[in-house]
Amino acid sequence: MSVPFIDLKRFEDGFLDAWIAKVTELSRETRFIGGDEVNQFEQNLAQDTGCRFALGCANGTDALQLALRGAGVGPGDVVLLPDFTFWATFEAIVNVGAQPVTVDISTTDLQMDFHLFQQAAEKHRPKAAMLVHLYGWGSADLRRMRTYCRENSILLIEDGAQAYGVTLDGVSIYKDADISTISFYPAKVFGAAGDAGAVVTSSEEYNRRIRSLLNHGRSDHYSYEHVGWNSRLDSLQAAYMNLVRPHIEKRLESRRTIARAYQNDFAGLESVRCVAPPEGYLENGYLNVILLESGEARGALQESLKAKGIGAGIVYPEPISIQQGAQSYIKDSIGGSVALDVGRRVLSLPLYAYMTLEEQQTVMQAVREVCR
Length: 372
Known about the structure:
This protein has helices spanning 15-28, 36-49, 60-70, 87-95, 114-124, 142-151, 204-213, 235-244, 248-265, 295-307, 337-345, 357-370; strands spanning 53-57, 78-82, 99-103, 128-132, 155-159, 167-168, 171-172, 179-183, 197-201, 218-220, 223-224, 272-274, 281-282, 290-292, 332-334, 346-347. It is an alpha/beta fold and 372 residues long. An eight-stranded mixed sheet has the order 1-9-8-5-4-2-3-15, sandwiched between helices. It has a three-stranded antiparallel sheet with strand order 7-6-13, with no helix packed on it. Helix 2 crosses helix 8 (235-244) and helix 3 crosses helix 7 (204-213).
C-alpha cells in the first residue's frame, strides 16, 4: 500500500461541519479581523504554554522578527543561531538588520551545541541568540543555555515553531523562556487553515512592544509609537484553531505513539539511528528523524521507498552557512561539520495524526528490507 509523507485530511468526525458552520457565521457577520475569536485563541494559547501573554500574528516568520524587534535587536547587533534550521530563522535576523553567526549542532540531539555556543558567545559578544527547538523536542542543554544567557546578558529568543505540545519534566517548553515563537503553518502539529503564528512571553515590556509592532506600531488607532507592519492574525485562522484545540491532545498522542513505535522498531538496526528526544522531554511527534550510515545509504532507501509509494522527506539537506543566500550576510560560522554530515544522512519517514497501524507497519517493513 502507498503511504504519504503527510496527510492533513484526517479530521475528527464532525470537524469539517463545524468549520463550515463557523466560516458561514463569520462571513455573514463580516468578522474577519480581530474580535472574539482572536481574543479567545490568545487566551487559550497563553494558558497552554504557561505564559502570561500570547500574541497572534500573521505567520511564524513574522513571529521571529517580532520577537527580535520586541526584544530590542536591530541593525549591527550580533545574533547567534544554529547552523541547522529552517531558513526563516536566519532570514529574520537579517531582516531586522542584525548580523548572524551560525553555530554547529550536537551529534546527539541535533540541537545547537552548547559548548560551541559558549565559544561563539565569548568570541563575538552577541546581543542575542536564537535557539531553535528542532524536530519536536529541544536541547538536552536547554536549562544551561538559558542560565548562561541570563548570566552573560544575552537575549535568548527561542524559535519554537515546531515545538507546540513539547514538555520538559512535565512543563511546557515555552513557560520558562523569556520569549518564544510558534508557527501554526498547516503541517505543524497544531496547524491553522493557512499561515498563522504567535509570540509568547511573560514580559510586560515585550508584550506591549510586540502588540504595537504587529499592528503598524500603533499606540492608538491613528497614533504610532513604533514603525511596525501589518502582521495581525485574522479571525478565520483563529476560529479554525479554536475548533482544533479540543482535539489537539488526541492528535498529539496519536503522533507520539507513532514516533515511539518507530524508535522501538528501529532500535535493533545497526545501519539506522532513529533519533529520540533527550531525557526529560515529551516530544510532540512532529517529525520522525532517522540517520543513515551515509548519503549513499539514504539515497538507496529513498529510491526503495519511492518505488513502493511511500513518502519521505529531508529536513534539512544543508546547513544555513553554505546556502548561497547566506554568504552576503553571515558574519561567522562556528563549526559546521556536524550539520553538514547530518544534512547528508538525515531522513524523515511518514508521521501524522491518525496514521493507521497498517500504514506504519508498511513503512517499517520497507525500511527493514533495505536496512539491517
